[in-house]
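lol ok so funny story. i was supposed to be doing the assay writeup but got distracted and ended up predicting the structure for this chain instead. priorities right. anyway since i did it might as well share w the group, maybe its usefull for someone
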Amino acid sequence: MTNRSLGAIALAALMTATALPALAADADPVVATVNGKEIHRSYLLEQQQGIPQLRQVPLEMVYDQLLDHAITGQLILEQANKQKLKDDPQVKAAFKDAETRILQQAFLAKQVDKDISEDAIKARYEEMKKTMPPKEEVKARHILVDSEDLAKAVIADLKSGVSFEDEAKAKTKDPSGKTNGGDLGYIGKDETVPEFSEAAFKLKPGEVTQTPVKTQFGWHVIKVEDRRVAPPPTYDEAKPQIKGELAQQDVQKIIDGLQKTASIKRFKADGTAAEAKAKN
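and the output, tada:
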């Protein structure tokens, strides 16, 4: 395993730990039982935080999928226990590998937590703010369909008085748009594909595109509800990213220090002696 991959493992473990909020007992209800075994909401949150693409998604949007996965996992675990697979030699070896990785992660994560102070994060935040130019954003909604004709029909509906939100819930193929009326929140020019940004940033608040906008995802009808110059992120908003960056640097520093003070002998793939690597 390389230094960089060890760092990535530790960083992922650290970010998962810091991203998961503590739950009060009354906020951690049982969400399912499987043959008497309780599954709690906190377990679904843990699974969600373990999938980078889902970390910022509201739990409600992926709740059913996560719950199905948890129930299926419990059913499979029951069968594995019935077959006493813990005693299988291959399973024992896999447990040993997992134990090694967990100990590596725990050491690096604890060391990073000790090394990175709140003051260091705040200092980096102040540096970051100085390098962030004002950024124009629009608050937009969109309706995504498969063809230009369908998009033109959407525009016709809007002109006839149908609300954008209702039309989005009825017509868009964007899954989140079906529940939130196509709301994208505030977006910057660099946060969407160029064709979408170009069309959206030409609109004034309250305006809707009068011709369909084609992108790699399909055909869009876009509405802009507000424009603003975005303020820099608050400290609390920026803290996870800053801590992640500092953690990545610290992990590499830790590993470099361990290597410099260790007695390490390297061999070639056939077991013969290899040239010693010079220490930096």
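Residues 1-7, 12-25 have pLDDT under 50 and may be disordered. The longest strand covers residues 218-230.
back to the writeup now i swear
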